[in-house]
Fold each of these.
Amino acid sequence: MTDKPTLAVWKFASCDGCQLTLLDCEDELRAVTEAVTIASFPEASRAVLDGPYDLSLVEGSITTPADRARIQAVRQQSRTLVAIGACATAGGIQALRNFADVQALLETVYARPEDISTLATSTPIADHVTVDFELRGCPISKTQLLEVITAVLAGRKPNVWPSSVCLE
Ligand code: SF4
């Protein structure tokens, strides 16, 4: 591990679009990668460095028991945790399941529904762990994402009002 702060990106139930926003930063991404050690970024690499992590960006909603356990582990390893995008901050399109009988859906769709491990609902990250900041959008704004990363690394509050929420 280096002396640079560590940035980790985590994916839960999502389309990867918010992670793509980070990749889309192009020139700015070079500056970010020079300033931090990328410890986890599933859109770019399967490698995951051990924690703790200075900043975790969490994409996606919690939809399975395994997700629920994993977000707890991510939280324990993260100094600052930012939920990015509508899936992570509101449950996403997959939260439509929250209005249906999930067991009935499983029995309709799958030949062996007993093999499927899922929760009855798709829920935001803040329903499961403490979230330090929520960055909203579908996908998130590149400019706002860079501001959040820069602010967290500088130890100040991100200036991305009104579309984002600080949960301090
Ligand atoms: Fe994809 Fe939108 Fe969810 Fe981001 S918020 S992961 S763009 S569906």
Amino acid sequence: EIPKEQWAQVIEKTGGPVEYKKIPVQKPGPDEVLVNIKYSGVCHTDLHALNGDWPLPTKLPLVGGHEGAGVVVARGDLVQDVEIGDHAGVKWLNGSCLACDFCMQADEPLCPKPQLSGYTVDGSFQQYAIAKAAHVARIPKDVPLDAIAPVLCAGITVYKGLKESGAKPGQTVAIVGAGGGLGSLALQYAKAMGLRTIAIDTGDEKKKMCTEQLGAESFVDFGKSSNVVKDVQAATKDGLGPHAVLLVAVNEKPFQQAAEYVRPRGSVVCIGLPAGAYLKAPVFESVIKMITIKGSYVGNRKDTAEALDFYQRGLIKAPFKVVGLSELQSVYDKMIRGEIAGRYVLDTSR
Ligand code: 8ID
Ligand code: ZN
Ligand code: ZN
């Protein structure tokens, strides 16, 4: 019933292009499951992997993708808690050692020996993907697989980032890059967590989506604003700025502005990973405002379960567009031009 060959999008060399072709279906190892991927979200990380943006090399040839939602069709001999037929998600953290200091305290994204889907191991831009059983997301059967796909990276990551920000119900969070994949989900998770939001991005389509669909209380257009710092602070009632800033943009500039507009005692949470970028903050203001600047990186298995639970409870409704797996390159082209409002999801059957 499991075919020997399948369709996949393969990166033969860094820089691309991706090649849509047939490749063999692999067999899962003893602690792994084989997931028949039905849908996969396209994250900006996949584009970084294609371009070789980061200091960490990818495997080659590579099948990208790490927001894969599907059905378990085979499992290794050691796997006991995932059944054939279960719905499962292949996420960025494909596997980790489960034995190091970090894994032992549920900080598995910090494991020094992780397997990363669509980066160091083949990911979800294929019809059959392998993941460590311990790490696959458990997807309830009443949850649609196309809509849950973006939650498997974008949703988990922003949910974790919002928790790391320390922002409390009623407080205001600025979402920088609010119109993109992570940003659109961040607005929804923030709202569900009782937080107020300021969306920062550009263009009327993203403005409309953020304010009319996703619950942002205000929108600052970084393309039109002559002073983003002032405009973000002005969007809070007392003019003192947001209690937290979630940086999910793919551009260095906002990483050098956030510390200026964040509220005293506030926190700046860095999530986006623009190539070669550096953080910058004025020492004087950072000290006398007692601000916190930190990074946040995906989420652990518990964050995963919680992020999915928010979705299952009907609290998260973020827009996504479905196209065929064969159309991945055109999604990348739109992403490069900054034209994607929300997320693209690939249907692996076409
Ligand atoms: O665990 C992590 N830390 C993690 C997990 C997943 C993704 C980190 N990421 C990283 C990705 O690798 C990528 O660098 O988060 C970043 C955002 O991923 P994405 O949401 O998938 O990208 P997108 O859909 O292209 O959205 C980016 C948005 O940023 C806006 C763009 O207009 C777009 O809507 N943006 C840019 I570029 N510059 C901006 C600026 N100066 C900006 N928004 C506000 N101000
Ligand atoms: Zn991702
Ligand atoms: Zn480990």
